[in-house]
What does this fold into?
Amino acid sequence: VNPIFSRQIRRRGGAVISCGDGNCHAPGGSGGRFTLGANEDSNFLAASNFVDRGDPDASLLLVEPTQDDVSPSPVAAFHGGGEIFPTRDDECYKAIRAWISNSGACGTCVAVPNSSICGYP
It folds into this structure.
């Protein structure tokens, strides 16, 4: 799912961003504990820290970019990047969820959707 983190996705309100943008989850950005860089192995480890394998929909990796509208959670923090996934039917949401459900075994075992169908229309 690393390609999802580096692609442009339209969030609520129309802004087009990438999780790996300098102001977001890039090193030195404002992404808090979830930092993405050029090293895919490091990104895998970072993403793995925000998953709940027993309940994929409760994973902070999915809950926070939905602002709790899609997946309410008492442990989610405010996602400064705004709402990224409008519903659980969003193709990027489903790809990340499938990766979590498959125990995050690898970064290429889940089909990554075309970026034009991820995020808000």
